[in-house]
Amino acid sequence: MWAKRVLARGIGEVCSLFRLSGPRPGLRILLYHALGTRLDFDTYGMSVAPDSFRQQMTSLKQNKAVMVVPLDLTALSMCTGTRVAITFDDGYRDHLMIVAPMLAELGIPFSVFVVPRYIETGHPYYLNVDQLSELSTMAGCTVGSHGMNHVRLVDLDEDALIRELRDSRQWLEDRLSRPVNMLAYPHGSVNQRVRNAAAAVGYTLGVCSHAGINGEERDPLMLCRTEILGCDSLRVFHHKLSGALDWRRLRVKDPASI
């Protein structure tokens, strides 16, 4: 566990030593998981300390080179400047207790992608139904699906794939009484077949875990994200904004091409 965290921190710090000209034009979507919750299954530090997160968000708001925007199709289609959208996966309770009030204070919109099965378990890591409903009404928050059971979608046959995508969307809409049209592919597991299934059941925007920034030509159901880890210093955070670690996309195929 600690070896992975040390390696992740070392890579980030080394890359941050290179000078970059600044954020490139496009939509940069930041991916977070937990905020302050100690996760017993976390092998490389997904949980970010609240103080570190506040520093990151405050510096983001003060950065004149970027515009913080809600995650939507408008943010993708804007033709100029660097836009940054904030997203969270899994639906942890700290998204309501810590994330929402902090970002409301700073005036930063954000999206949370939740797993209905996690909510139904009653596990203390995750939101319950009432907390999810409360979160969905908070200023600047948009709720999307993260699959019904958080399984790798590319491994499912066609019927199971449709159920996983359709049932999670319906579950959320029934309980929140509002449309749900955004999806984060669990484990970043997506290809063209999965993408087409998501479109078929009504999603209009989908995010994966492929590193990079999104231009207006990017498929809105295959949007790239930049993951922020608990070990990232403020310097590494800014270099990730500028694309210092986008080279990681070269290690794996772009799901848009599979």
Average pLDDT: 91
Tally of domains:
1
Distance between the termini: 31 Å
Question: Number of DSSP strands?
Answer: 8
Topology:
Layout: H1 2-15, E1 26-32, H2 50-62, E2 66-68, H3 73-77, E3 82-90, H4 94-106, E4 110-114, H5 116-121, H6 129-136, E5 141-145, H7 158-176, E6 182-184, H8 192-200, E7 205-207, E8 226-227, H9 234-242
Parallel strand pairs: 1-3, 1-8, 2-3, 3-4, 4-5, 6-7
Helix pairs in contact: 2-4
Describe the structure.
The chain is α/β, with parallel strands linked by helices and 258 residues long. The protein is 37% helix and 14% strand. It has helices spanning 2-15, 50-62, 73-77, 94-106, 116-121, 129-136, 158-176, 192-200, 234-242; strands at residues 26-32, 66-68, 82-90, 110-114, 141-145, 182-184, 205-207, 226-227. The strands form 2 sheets. Strands 1, 2, 3, 4, 5 and 8 form a 6-stranded parallel β-sheet that branches. Strands 6-7 form a two-stranded parallel sheet. Strand 3, helix 4 and strand 4 form a beta-alpha-beta unit. It is globular and about 45 Å long.
